[in-house]
């Protein structure tokens, strides 16, 4: 597997772009991915009971048709909690995109992100889609523009591409994602769009995506709020022309590993770019009785506002970590736990067999000053290890979110 | 029922005081409640798997002996995650208190609040308890000093007393509590100590306490973090000399109502005084299928960092409220929901039957500027109504918690 420059435009058959259409102030706010030859497409969506209109529309579309040719995304307005009109607006976006590209509206998926409860400015969206469909291309810049158009409070572009070798044929996977706030994916994620030119059976694509999402996007948390608009879409053009993969052989595993690297890397980027974040936090839970117990403990630590503010303040207040593990619903025995804190260079032991250790405050301080903080907790109960990612909680989180609408 | 001046010293038979012993810098940090004649005492404790030493010691004590005569509390150090030594220190506190008051150590309960993972300065504690046991009294000031001694980042004293009439006999209930951070009680609460001179059967006292706690302390959240030290203790001296209450008659109900008023009022005070809080938030969930569904939705809204920061920023970003209801595990149909926002004077409708309403931004702004914000959500599914309380999320929460240890 090798990392290559690019993003969603890297796999064969895909074009993309992003423009400013006027939904949002002063930033690109409309993106399009297009594959003329069609794709096999699978997706995962938010488990929030309140589903945004584009989520509802895509679920319907994918139930009937997996040959998707285009995906249109706007930022600025989430088109969530917008009732019947919102649903019709999302449908209209697929229709306008279909007409502009001369394809059917049920070959188009749609996504939105931004403020909840406001209606889309459909005149601007219409004009924007028409313009955008004429500006598609497959240069690295085109991919970047598309990745820019889906950003909200994100501070950097999140895209990535890798190349793998499948039976002598080079196969590419590209992706773009956005995160920042209302980040606590559950069974799906923020917006993440993955393209590939692999030739693979739909059920296997679906399986690879589901399994990877569980351990990547679903293991990050910025603020514990699961969005109404979360979605991850995987589109496979088949234009890499490898022999069709239709069982879980070595090639399937190779693809799955590459896909998982992409998803994990983007998930970490989303965590690191959480609203107001200054540090990436990785929580490793080792020795859990079950994976589920490990995940509960991992997420509880990642979500604790007290842990997050302590890390922002560079204060190794580890009691809060143990308290957060304790109020999670995950099983463990507090008297057996080992706890340590590390960055990429140094490590200190904070607890051994449930009892506090004496540690060098200086080394602790050095670790806390890093921009990657690794919290490792060994439950010594079983053989399940899990990892998750989050970020610290700063003054800027409050600043950003106290006036998001204005 | 009438409100009276005072706190834990108001019911007959109780003395108290609070002093500075040196655990904490520059503030009272050690309190004692004493009832020479003995009491019938019941308690509820944190459900966090990681239980602080005083919680473990009290659970053991109350399993064997309900005739409690004294309760000693320190602030500054939580004596949590302190292993065997911490357990022995908590036992030692009951022993020293027992010796100082000439009672048995198993007639003493103990509580701690403060930093997790540090050991108590036992020499200072010992000296403090000896001094404190000579300074007990039952004046209003003595009650206030005791309430001061249990504060951590609390900005005001939380105490209260009421008087009720039981069969012609005046019966009093007094209480003191502390909250501020790591506030998300579960089956218990922060530190809350309630005294009464009622003469009542132990099982009934226990029942009244449990039922009241479920709808008061267990319905508040400051930051979603359930502490290792939560406890609520109810001590009844019986010295009011009413005829023993041993069934759920009118007198029992009268007492329970008064107790619930005390618990609810203190719970709201704790929510209002949440770290960095500028506003009290009340969430009313109406028409839930079950009480449990209502509570899940209520707590999810109260705990949402995005809702809390929006309210701090006085931004009626109601989409976040609906999103938080949606990712709770509570059942409802998003297409039926009514949502409104009010203060004590005005109300605006934000959603009707799941569709956004057009509302006056000016009225919304006026409501958002209040220091009490009421969020009311009608699910229109059943007959269960629940209420809960929390606070907004400000820059100061981050400031306070980024450097709590130092």
TrEMBL record, chains A, B:
Note the site residues: Involved in the stabilization of negative charge on the oxyanion by the formation of the oxyanion hole. 113-114
One GO molecular function term of this record is:
L-glutamate N-acetyltransferase activity, acting on acetyl-L-ornithine as donor
Record keywords, A-Z: Acyltransferase, Amino-acid biosynthesis, Arginine biosynthesis, Autocatalytic cleavage, Cytoplasm, Multifunctional enzyme, Transferase
Site (Cleavage): give the residues.
Answer: 188-189
Which positions in this protein are listed as binding substrate? 152, 178, 189, 275, 401, 406
HAMAP family documented for this protein: ArgJ
Q: Which family does it belong to?
A: Belongs to the ArgJ family.
Query: What is the name attached to this protein's record?
Result: Arginine biosynthesis bifunctional protein ArgJ
What is the source species?
A: Anaeromicrobium sediminis
What lineage is this protein's organism placed in?
Bacteria, Bacillati, Bacillota, Clostridia, Peptostreptococcales
């Amino acid at each position: 597997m090798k990392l290559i420059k690019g993003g969603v435009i890297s796999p064969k058959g895909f074009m993309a772009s992003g423009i400013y259409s006027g939904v949002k102030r002063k930033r690109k706010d409309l993106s399009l991915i297009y594959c003329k030859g069609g794709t096999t497409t699978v997706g995962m969506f938010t488990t929030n009971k309140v589903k945004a209109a584009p989520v509802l529309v895509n679920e319907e579309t994918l139930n009937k048709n997996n040959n998707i040719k285009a995906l249109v995304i706007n930022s600025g307005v989430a088109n969530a909690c917008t009732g019947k009109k919102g649903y019709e607006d999302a449908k209209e976006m697929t229709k306008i995109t279909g007409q502009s590209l001369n394809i059917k509206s049920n070959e188009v998926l749609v996504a939105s992100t931004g403020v909840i409860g406001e209606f889309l400015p459909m005149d601007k969206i219409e004009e924007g889609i028409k313009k955008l469909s004429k500006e598609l291309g497959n240069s690295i810049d085109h991919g970047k523009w598309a990745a820019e158009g889906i950003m909200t409070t994100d501070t950097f572009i999140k895209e990535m591409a890798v190349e793998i070798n499948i039976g002598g044929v080079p196969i590419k996977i590209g992706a773009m994602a956005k995160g920042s706030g209302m980040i606590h994916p559950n069974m799906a994620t923020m917006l993440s769009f993955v393209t590939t030119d692999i030739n693979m059976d739909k059920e296997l694509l679906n399986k690879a995506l589901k399994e990877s999402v569980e351990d990547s996007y679903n293991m990050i948390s910025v603020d514990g709020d699961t969005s109404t608009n979360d979605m991850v879409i995987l589109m496979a053009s088949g234009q890499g022309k490898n022999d069709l993969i239709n069982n879980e052989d070595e090639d399937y595993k190779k693809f799955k590993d590459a896909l998982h690297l992409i998803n994990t890397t983007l998930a970490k980027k989303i965590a690191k770019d959480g609203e107001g974040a200054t540090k990436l936090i990785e929580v490793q839970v080792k020795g859990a009785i079950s994976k589920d117990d490990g995940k509960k403990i991992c997420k509880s630590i990642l979500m604790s506002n007290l842990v997050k503010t302590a890390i922002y303040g560079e204060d190794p207040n580890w009691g809060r970590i143990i308290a957060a593990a304790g109020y999670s619903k995950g099983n463990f025995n507090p008297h057996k736990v080992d706890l340590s804190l590390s960055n990429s260079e140094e490590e200190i032991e904070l607890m051994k067999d449930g009892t506090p250790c004496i540690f060098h405050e200086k080394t602790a301080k050095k670790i806390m000053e890093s921009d990657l903080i690794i919290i490792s907790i060994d439950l010594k109960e079983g053989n399940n290890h899990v990892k998750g990612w989050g970020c610290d909680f700063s003054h800027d989180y409050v600043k950003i979110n106290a006036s998001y609408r204005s």
